[in-house]
Design goal:
222 residues, alpha+beta, five-stranded antiparallel β-sheet, four-stranded antiparallel β-sheet, 19% helix
């Protein structure tokens, strides 16, 4: 059997992760199609939120969870070319995580010092979500805007895991920080106790909270 001819304009930009990848005929979870093989080279044609439209070497196209595609290294941009995507730069996500942590720290300090009551504290932290794990040069960051965990080595970030499949409704966003009234510490925005807030936020998105599971070779029990 003669293998299909490659599409004339096929230039792989990504590969499928080693676990393979589910695919759909359209950006609609009710229209599944054949899954993609592990490490299959694909060309990313377009994005629509979390969805990515891909084309394979034989010209077959489908829609996948674009967050899970593994980017193929590309040459550095030439002078005047398009700058690298911000999703590969760890600094914006680090700044968002640090901002959320600082808002929570200030709210806890106000509560401990008696500058606000429990209800005000709950309001101040409502909607705050952050996740950071540091281990030497390795960092895992939770991207609350896209519902995914990112892994980085200090220079680039890549999707490590997603909280829900493509097309899931976005999670609740924290209220904007409020300026303190003149002459006082003021009450800063905030939410229920951290565990209750996380469970309530996950319930609003219609899926169970993210859980850490043992993977083969991780040292956990079978």
């Amino acid at each position: 059997m003669t293998p299909p001819e490659p599409a004339p304009d096929f230039r792989p930009t990504h590969v499928v992760p080693q676990e393979g990848l589910a695919a759909w005929e359209a950006p609609d979870v009710s229209r599944p199609t054949a899954s993609l093989d592990p490490l299959l080279p694909v060309q990313l044609l377009s994005r629509r939120g979390e969805w990515g439209e891909i084309m394979c070497a034989n010209g077959w196209s489908a829609w996948v969870d674009g967050r899970l595609l593994v980017a193929v290294p590309q040459p550095p941009p030439t002078a005047g070319g398009r700058a690298p995507g911000h999703s590969e730069d760890p600094r914006p996500q680090l700044e968002r995580s640090a901002g959320a942590l600082e808002r929570y720290r200030r709210a806890v300090a106000d509560l401990a010092a008696g500058r606000c009551d429990t209800e005000s504290f709950h309001h101040a932290v409502r909607g705050l979500r952050a996740g950071v794990v540091l281990d030497g040069e390795s960092v895992w960051l939770f991207d609350e805007t896209a519902g995914r965990w990112m892994y980085g080595d200090g220079s680039r970030l890549a999707t490590y895991a997603v909280v829900a499949g493509p097309g899931a409704p976005p999670g609740p966003q924290p209220p904007p920080a409020q300026a303190a009234p003149e002459g006082g510490a003021g009450v800063r925005p905030a939410a229920e106790a951290p565990g209750a807030a996380a469970e309530r936020a996950e319930g609003q998105r219609g899926h169970a909270p993210t859980r850490i599971v043992d993977t083969p070779g991780s040292g956990g029990s079978d």
